[in-house]
Amino acid sequence: MSMKPGFDTLRSHAARLQGAHSSSLLAKDPARARDFALRQESLYFNFARQSYDRDALDALLALARSRDMTGAYRRLFDGEKVNITEGRAALHTALRGDHSGAAIAREAYATASAVRLRMGALVAELEASGITDIVSVGIGGSDLGPRLVADALREPAGGRFRVHFLSNVDGAAAQRTLAPLDPARTAAILISKTFGTQETLLNGGILRDWLGGSERLYAVSANPERAAAAFDIAAERVLPMWDWVGGRYSLWSAVGLPIALAIGFDRFEGLLSGASEFDAHVLNSPLESNISVRHALTAVWNRNVLGHAAHGVMTYDQRLALLPAYLQQLVMESLGKSVKLDGSPVEGDTVPVWWGGAGTDVQHSFFQALHQGTGIVPLDFVGTIRNDDPYAENHLALMSNLFAQAEALANGQSSEDPHRAYAGGRPSTLILLDALTPQSLGALIAMYEHSVYAQSVLWGINAFDQFGVELGKQLANGLLPALRGEAEASDPVTKVLLAELKARA
Ligand code: F6P
Fold first, then answer.
1. CA-to-CA distance for 58 and 211, rounded, in angstroms?
2. What pLDDT, on the 0 to 100 scale, is given for residue 357?
3. Which residues cross the membrane (predicted)?
4. Can you list the residues of the chain whose pLDDT is less than 50?
5. In what order do the strands lie in the sheet with 186-191?
6. H helices of 197-335, where?
7. Alpha-carbon distances, residue 86 vs 242, 462, 487 (angstroms)
8. For residues 356 and 183, what is the distance between their CA atoms, to the nearest angstrom?
9. Which contiguous run of DSSP H or E holds residue 70?
10. Is 184 in the pocket of ligand 1 (CB under 6 A)?
11. What pTM did the predictor assign?
């Protein structure tokens, strides 16, 4: 079905609102400051500084209805094969809750729950051992989610274990990770859905040799037999995952074992319960109050109607400093597509460049460009109302900066001196967590997962495959013989580069 009619309507609204500052929209409709906000439990989202008005928002919601958004979520939660190019379901929701009466989804929930029991037993076993350090080896979805959540929720001085993450194939990463550790007091978890990922296999070999064998090696994979055989890992130390969970949606599975070791198994279960509560919000809310749908419609308005080519996530909570990096994979590996489900070209732009950083550091880095640059970058600001550190004055300063930046970007400031004028009209969504807890972080991540899915439905693309990562891998494997001097490269520039490398090595 063509997206064109819906987008044409939206563009007519944008023309009607031409250049409307959110500040002028607020002047016309002061109630939007409150009305353009939505809440789910301890999470609050204020969209008042976006540049659509009530009529444009109605048109956005009409677009969502025209794409059967409610039915699309039902199909996702029921375990239908929404990942049509790989003929798979995408049942990350079944990892954390029993939200569907469909047999497939209920069976997935039961299977995941049984593995979660095994996870808990492994955590207890390791907690009773003399192990002090855990090295989690994985990359992409087998790294970014665990790394984010373990860092966000760990105790300031560290918990029962020091958990280290090793992802890059660059040997410097392994060297710097292992140098300060004692192999006798270290266990390693090899996480790889396919167990065919070059980086993880190479780093896994380094860990096995460094540990002096596989006795303290664990593995998580959708290919448990391959994992066990490749590294001689006893079956009881291999936890399964499944093809019906995408790698970048998998932290809720046994991929989250390093999380559970870093923050405790009970708090890991709290993370899942927070996500599950948000799942219920997405399933049961009317579209107009569905936060993920509103977030997705806002993204489509900024991308397809206003043509903005980037989206920033600025986390005014240092514990969420890794959220932008995690979201880069979740969003850009899911939505970085240019053909629709039927293989025809998409009818407009899809994912913008997602990036971000932690406030207030970002104000001393790239915020100049956000305030006075020629491009407009819509932002998500994420803040936490209750701090969990003893520095009250710092928290007041952090929150004052958070609110000030959003206000300044939106309202700007005129000046006789053009060098000191701020155009304003920079849109943002303000996301406030009551506190950073396992539950609130689980809900926040689920919100983004479901916004990504809603955007894929609006664009008519598959959020769950990632064929675009294959060519680079194939070429890299093909260049290894040339790097070893055993063959010639075919690409003329690569050939020159290899000659330079050889001459300088
Ligand atoms: O980036 C490609 C990718 O396949 C991701 O989708 C995935 O999360 C990552 O590589 C790691 O894959 P695996 O978990 O199979 O090692």
1. 60
2. 98
3. none
4. none
5. 162-166, 133-137, 186-191, 217-221, 238-240
6. 198-211, 224-231, 257-263, 265-284, 291-300, 323-335
7. 13, 10, 35
8. 36
9. helix 69-77
10. no
11. 0.98
